[in-house]
Amino acid sequence: MSEDWHRLANPDEIPSPALLIYPDRVEENIRRMIAMAGTADRLRPHVKTHKLGEIVQLQLKAGITRFKCATIAEAEMLAQAGARDVLLANQLVGPNARRLAKLAGWFREVRFSTIADDAEAVGNLASAGQEAGITLPVLLDLDGGMGRTGIPLGQAAVMLYKLIDQLPGVEPAGLHLYDGHLHESDPAERLAKWKTMMEQLKSFRTDVEAAGLPVPVVVGGGTPTFPFHARHTAHECSPGTTLLWDFGYAEKFADLEFQQAAVLLSRVVSKPGSNRITLDLGHKGIAAENPHPRVKFIGLDDAEAVVHSEEHLTLQTDRAGDFRVGDLLYGIPRHICPTVALYDRAYIIRMGKLTAQWQVTARARKLTY
Prior knowledge:
Blueprint (H helix, E strand, L loop, with lengths): L17 E4 L1 H15 L15 H9 L5 E3 L2 H10 L3 E4 L7 H11 L4 E6 L2 H14 L3 E8 L7 E2 L2 H12 L3 E8 L9 H24 L7 E3 L5 H7 L3 E2 L9 H6 L9 E12 L2 E4 L15 E3 L6 E5 L4 E4 L11 E6 L2 H5 L4 E6 L2 E7 L10
Parallel strand pairs: 1-16, 2-3, 3-4, 4-5, 5-6, 5-7, 7-8, 8-9
Antiparallel strand pairs: 1-10, 10-11, 10-15, 11-14, 12-15, 13-14, 16-17
Helix pairs in contact: 2-3, 4-5
């Protein structure tokens, strides 16, 4: 792999800070995802990472037909991009149940489904479906130990799934399990904990089916457990970060071999000292929910963030004297998903050249519905 794969031939065409995406690398990551899953039919990739219709179309071209998302805007973006099976994996509250029902009523050729872990939420979905004259498929959202969302595995969960089966306007569509708490760096340790969780899920599924309830599908896992679901189950796998990758996952999960396909372009805007340079990559240009380093700059390994504000990132480095105001740096973010959401467009780079600009459509809270 070329060490200068990220470098631009004509950087003056792009203002900074900017999000650069390398579609050749995205396509390679798609190939690796399919190879890991065994077939494209096993995949239901999450679009929260990229939010881009063009990347959805690259996946459709590769044979991936099912997708997962977190917002109604992402669901609408998927429908516009040509997806025909969309799971909105976020419990819908307030007006959002009706928004999804309206979206499903408009895009009749798309199968929209969602998740629920609460009886009142199921009732709201049922009412929204009836009002729109449709039946919404609903997966039971299970808590496998993360403690964020989902209902614990047990009899109460069986009864909630039975409610989905009984109410008009909704229908039982399977089980959803996000296991984001399983993120050990050691794959053997991660696998052992995952197997324990899977035994509990197997027992629960037996109880559900013994109650006469259908389980058409299980949608399981995020990126860290993707290879386990792919290798040991028939579940639909829903990794997301695999499409663009970042240095956070690359460093923590050495067993997952994906290519970094998104880079942040930044420029030196000031030199406030003999060992400092200040870049135009503030909080508005890089996700700030993690401690530093939030970004690692290619070829500048000793850089240490000392000031970070809305528009500026000041680095301390022994190489500060090598840079002039206006010089470029290329950075890999720690967490790519919220970083993409900070940009209204991505600059598309092939063979070092700018070839297109893609609107990050689904960063919006609302498109039409």
